[in-house]
Amino acid sequence: MIRQLPFARTLALSLGAGALALGLAPGQPTLLAPPAAAQAASDLDRVVGALRAISTMKADFVQTDRQGQTLRGVMTLKRPGKIRFDYGKDADFLVVSNGKSLYVVDYEVAQVERWPIGNSPLGALFDPDKDVKRYGKLVPTGNPDVLSVEVRDPKKPEFGMITLIFVKNAAAPGGLQLTHWVALDAQNNRTRVNLSNQRYGVAVADSAFTFKDPRRTARRPG
Predict the structure, then answer these.
(1) What is the pLDDT of residue 219?
(2) pTM of the model
(3) Angle CA(19)–CA(22)–CA(25) in degrees, nearest 5?
(4) What residue ranges do the domains of the chain occupy?
(5) Has domain 5-203 been given CATH number 3.10.50.30?
């Protein structure tokens, strides 16, 4: 059995931070000359357009913590608000959102942790109605083919900080492909999630975002 539930929980929190970066929290202003500011605004518009262009997506992921421990699995996304991180048949935990709440499911101890996402960062990332371009901070990368978006909300330190990296790719929705993100939580724990083998527009049933509740199976009859 794979037993790294705190690692999975960190991923769940980093998902919240990732959405925060593009949806709810204003980033710190960047002092740029007018042409640079205009380019940054244009690039941020491109990021927003790319996110809104994703209807469904599957990707392989490698999740790495600050100690260098790694987990692998498959991420499945369906807008708005649905996401699943499947760590494989040997894992005894699961991270999944059904569009209303984000869950970390621990089958070994029959426990489920839940975070509402109706007004949360995660909801903002996958909700096309959010005006996400108002909030992200574009960070120069020195590479015209790579865009980096970063946000830290001083009013909500529990969300930490996130940096999302996009690479220009004509085959991806909106011409940009999310390749990885790096999250720092409030305790300065660093989690990096690398994506590969991205597939867009795949058929994904809503049942992919449900889970067997271990609390029910753990109850004794009567």
Answers:
(1) 44
(2) 0.78
(3) 85
(4) 5-203
(5) no
